[in-house]
């Protein structure tokens, strides 16, 4: 597994954490994002994620570089899953190590927000009564006419 990776299959949380462990790490924070069943009163059946993988991995690495520059002594690893994900499946794992816990928490939150802003990963929610591409990173054909 690479430090920044898009995966078509189950994510290994422990392995992502191990990528950031080092002797100077006093803290490791791990964020896992999961498929939830209910969103604003609507029942989700499953999610379908797609990505432009080469660019998505480059953008994940860019986020890692931003974090390592902003919070000195940090190390970052990010894995995001694509394909069909069912309720409780893990969609993303972000691990951040740092000498102290505050930086690890802050950097981890920064990472998920930046992923949502800039990484070409698209999420389609499939509900009992329909489906829709969701979020800022809608598929390009979904964005036309929205600007």
Automatic annotation (TrEMBL):
Listed InterPro entries: MoaE_sf (IPR036563), Mopterin_biosynth_MoaE (IPR003448)
CDD domains in the record: MoaE (cd00756)
Domain of life of the source: Bacteria
Pfam family for this entry, one: MoaE
Protein name from the UniProt record: Molybdenum cofactor biosynthesis protein MoaE
Organism: Paenibacillus apiarius
UniProt lineage: Bacteria, Bacillati, Bacillota, Bacilli, Bacillales
């Amino acid at each position: 597994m690479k430090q920044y990776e898009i995966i078509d299959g189950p994510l290994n949380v422990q392995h992502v954490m191990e990528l950031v462990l080092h002797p100077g790490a006093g803290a490791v924070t791990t964020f896992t994002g999961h498929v939830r069943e209910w969103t604003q009163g609507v029942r989700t059946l499953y999610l379908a994620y797609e990505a432009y993988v080469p660019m998505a991995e480059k953008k994940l690495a860019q986020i890692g570089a931003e974090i390592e520059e902003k919070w000195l002594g940090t190390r970052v690893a990010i894995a995001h899953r694509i394909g069909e994900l069912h309720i409780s499946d893990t969609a993303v794992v972000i691990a951040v190590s740092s000498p102290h816990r505050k930086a690890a928490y802050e950097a981890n939150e920064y990472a998920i927000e930046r992923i949502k802003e800039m990484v070409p990963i698209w999420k389609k929610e499939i509900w009992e009564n329909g489906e829709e591409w969701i979020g800022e990173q809608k598929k390009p054909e979904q964005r036309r006419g929205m600007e």
